Amino acid sequence: MKKQNKNILIGLFLGFIVIIAMSAYLLLDDGSMDKPPVVSNEKGISKKSHDIVSEAETEKKPVPGAAHETPAPLSKPTDAGASESTYVSYPETLVELLGIDMNELVEERDAFKSTIIHIGWMDRINEILKNLDPEKKAAIIKNHTSLLYIKDKLNEAYLTGKIDHETFKKALADLMKWHQRSYESILTDAEYEALFEITPDLVDDTIDAIIDQTPDYSFILNQEIPADEVAKQVQGYKLEEVNSHFKRMILDRDALGKQINSGEVTLDQARWTLNESQQVFIGKCKEILTEDEINTIFGSVEALESGATQTEAPKVLGDTDEMELGFKIENPITSIENVTEKIDQNKIGDIKFFYQQRAMEREELIEKLEAGELTPEDIENMSNEMDAVFEDNCRDTLTTDEYQLLFDNPENKEPVEPPAPETLKE
Predict the structure, then answer these.
(1) Distances in Å between the alpha carbon of 127 and those of 195, 203, 309, 321, 383?
(2) What is the dihedral of CA 299, 305, 306, 308, to 10 degrees?
(3) How many angstroms separate the CA atoms of 214 and 157, rounded?
(4) DSSP β-bridge partners for residue 74
(5) What is the DSSP letter of 75?
(6) Number of Cβ atoms within 10 Å of the Cβ of 11
(7) Spatial CB neighbours of 33, under 8 Å, sequence gap ≥ 6
(8) Which of 324, 356, 334 is nearest to 405 (CA)?
(9) What are phi and psi of 246, to 5 degrees?
């Protein structure tokens, strides 16, 4: 979906806060395992046992110095070497907080080049900054893949209870502010504003506003009762216990996504395992909570079991369509739920395949561009051809109504000039 103004930044940012801003149920329906998760193809989170994260673990104190009101400083590792670009930097405080080995970061961050988030972001870089200096583009790639690597480690620390929720949010804000500051050091003011459609002086406030809006408990599905009221009506220790099981389920999903991408498990095996993990969460909720408490938190027992509210589906925000379906919805009035309700899962899987195949082919083009094998003009022409093939495949797969549901976007259509009136004959 087309992003405007500061939504460019918000859209990029939403992809990283999904585990605290969105219910896992939106990610755990029967068809969701056909898509790569937020951190697909990534390394870093080891597959741990299925023992539930204990309440004591979730109550660990924040690491001293982890909470910052200002962004973590830009830094380079001592072993980065003289060949490392001056544009490449690292958030020193977060590296220390998470105990990240800099050699491992440099060695393993390339695995993140194949993620949807990185490919999509580099598509935008190449589209907006066509004549960007190759050294600067290389630095952007290193900084962005470093961001994804660090975010993966941050997820792990939060989901396993090594850091608490507030520390996670503040560290996440620091990470994003560092990322934006790295662009300030690389780009001119004009390039920065063209890329993000926002001025640098507004970025910190935008990030803080997004963080402030994230709920303490993202498993709450009941939209009839404000989250703070839910917290008043259900005892705090019960919410914490449910939250520990919820994070276990998210961690399982994250690990499964990586196993799918590495070929360790098949989609069918993953669906079975993921469903089992979700059923464990549902069972634990029923053990911990009374029926009234379930109704307060989830809206109903049925909503808990189905992982969905009965209210109108929200419109797509940020990159959630790519994360849940595996492709981007271009129709601004179509929700993810509209798609899953009205289009057959096999067709959704086909569109996802076409979309991700195009993304991989574009990634190969980017590599050839960086190697000097292709010119920007070559890339643009070949990319247009890929778009045409993608459109043809989608139209062959979908009915006209289904295609319009996904891709009909008035914002992308050029206004049609009315025909000039014919000259009156005398």
Answers:
(1) 9, 22, 38, 21, 10
(2) 30
(3) 18
(4) 91
(5) E
(6) 19
(7) 256, 260, 267, 270, 271, 274
(8) 334
(9) -60, -45
Structure confidence at residue 311 (pLDDT): 42
Where would I find the H helices in 263-344?
Answer: 267-288, 291-298, 301-306, 320-325, 336-342
| pLDDT at position 78 | 45
Pairwise CA distance, residues 208 & 43, whole Å: 28
pLDDT of residue 410: 62
- What pLDDT score does 21 carry? 39
Q: 202 with 210: CB under 8 angstroms? A: no
Q: Is-contact 158 251, C-beta < 8 A?
A: no
User: Tokens standing for 408?
Assistant: 């009909």
Looking at this protein, which amino acid is placed at residue 350? D
**Secondary structure of residue 46 in the 3-state scheme:** coil
**Residue 133: what pLDDT?**
93
All residue ranges of the chain with pLDDT < 70 are 1-84, 261, 307-319, 410-426
Burial 326-364, CB ≥16 within 10 A → b, else e: bbbbbbeebbbbbbbeebeeebbbbbbebbbebbebbbe
- According to DSSP, residue 217 is labeled -
C-alpha to C-alpha distance for 231 and 224, rounded to whole angstroms: 14
Dihedral (CA of 408, 410, 415, 419) sign:
positive
CA separation for the pair 43, 160 (Å, rounded): 16
Cα–Cα–Cα angle for 244, 249, 253, rounded to 5 degrees: 145
Residue 173, both tokens: 């804000």
pLDDT (0 to 100) of residue 49: 26
What tokens does 188 get?
A: 């001119």
Residue with tokens 């849940």: 324
* Residue 75 dihedral angles phi and psi, to the nearest 5°: -150, 155
